[in-house]
Design goal:
Blueprint lengths: L1 H12 L18 H19 L4 H13 L13
Helix pairs in contact: 2-3
Length: about 80
């Protein structure tokens, strides 16, 4: 179990060095992990503005925001 967890951790850390939109022209380069961070922050802000008391939905929303692009770390590349 620990071996798989450590392996998964390294897969996620690779997202720090995986550029988003590497297949199309962009103005500013951003890593997948940076993008996921900001998606999570904005999701928290939007959820808090809409329904500040619903912590169960907030937790689910933040988890989904944090991991929504994790598949890009294992070779799927950009899905435009």
């Amino acid at each position: 179990m620990w071996k798989e967890l450590i392996s998964a951790t390294h897969e996620c850390q690779r997202l720090d060095y995986t550029p988003r939109y590497s297949t199309i022209p962009i103005v500013t380069q951003e890593s997948v992990s940076t993008h996921s961070y900001w998606v999570t922050v904005y999701a928290a802000m939007i959820h808090t503005a809409l329904d500040p008391g619903d912590t169960d939905t907030l937790a689910a929303c933040l988890l989904q925001a944090a991991i929504h692009d994790i598949i890009e770390g294992i070779g799927s590349g950009d899905i435009v």
